[in-house]
Amino acid sequence: MLLIVQIKCFQEIITIGYRVYHSYDLPWFRTLSWYFLICVNYFFYGETVADYFGALVQREEPLQFLARYHRFISFALYLAGFCMFVLSLVKKHYRLQFYMFAWTHVTLLIVVTQSHLVIQNLFEGMIWFIVPISIVICNDIMAYLFGFFFGRTPLIKLSPKKTWEGFIGGFFSTVVFGFILAYLLSQFQYFVCPVGFNSETNRFIVECEPSDIFVMQEYTLPTVLQNALRWKTVNLYPFQIHSISLSSFASLIGPFGGFFASGFKRAFKIKDFASTIPGHGGIMDRFDCQYLMATFTHVYIASFIRGPNPSKVLQQLMMLQPEQQLGIFHTLHSHLRQRGMLPPAAAAQA
């Protein structure tokens, strides 16, 4: 699904470039644009396969070769496209061709790179995919409703219909919605468990012992809230607290993705990216804020959530040669014995 959305968004933005710069007659350029899309996807999807399907790659000899030299192959493919671009340069069209070359690369950066981050979020657990997407949709709807019924004060010139009333109403509504949705999804293992790959059955698995952020905990309320609510403690999933950060970003910074898209369309005097969805414009019109949200979610997980992953380390160890595995075993054994963490019986047997 993500790949289909990504390809459609890429096609919409590239088509605008063709139309704006009247570049339909440039030799090879349409072919080169799609070639670069294939190259970048090959690189990112290859990285994902090597990262999450290490055991499967290790068993298949052709995949071992592709995984070992994946970055070199990706770079070679890109260089082939780069050389084809240079060979396609035509006198009197140099500037136009370089415009479109830059247009293609910026589009790849915006669309493909951020699509890859969405996939990375998916592997951390479905909850990191569903909650960010849902709160952006909620903010869009609630900001529209508050703006429609109570809007009086213009927010930004790029989007004349946006109002401060809609912006503020959307913020509070999104925080409440995200908090409730986080509570509902945190109860189900299917949503909170990182996606794993079982090398014995060759299937994805979503079974795990939920991490601490998805385990109900008791929190002591600040004195001010204790006096107002008559409660001293409250039981919450820690992820509900994280959802406030995600909702705040979706409400306060996320709309700037939409403003950016509005400015882009105004710069090239177009109303919508495409007419894919009647009355709503193109796919990119629906995903302008989603990509920004996906990037924030990925950075948030890496900065505040993700810790060392023993299963991933073990998977990487299994891909090493037997001598290398034995060397790591002896090093780890010596380290644990020096720290007094290895039971005497285990030390004697070893």
Tell me about this structure:
The structure is a single chain. By secondary structure, the chain is mainly alpha-helical. It folds into two domains: 1-124, no CATH class; 126-334, no CATH class. Helix content is 70%, strand content 6%. The protein has helices spanning 2-20, 29-52, 54-59, 61-68, 70-87, 94-124, 127-150, 164-185, 189-192, 223-229, 238-252, 255-267, 283-305, 310-318, 322-338, 344-349; strands at 154-156, 159-163, 196-198, 203-205, 217-220, 233-236. The strands form three sheets. The protein has a two-stranded antiparallel sheet. Strands 3-4 form a two-stranded antiparallel sheet. Strands 5-6 form a two-stranded antiparallel ribbon. Helix 1 (2-20) packs antiparallel against helix 6 (94-124) and helix 12 (255-267) runs antiparallel to helix 13. It is flat. The two termini are 50 Å apart. The relative contact order is 0.10.
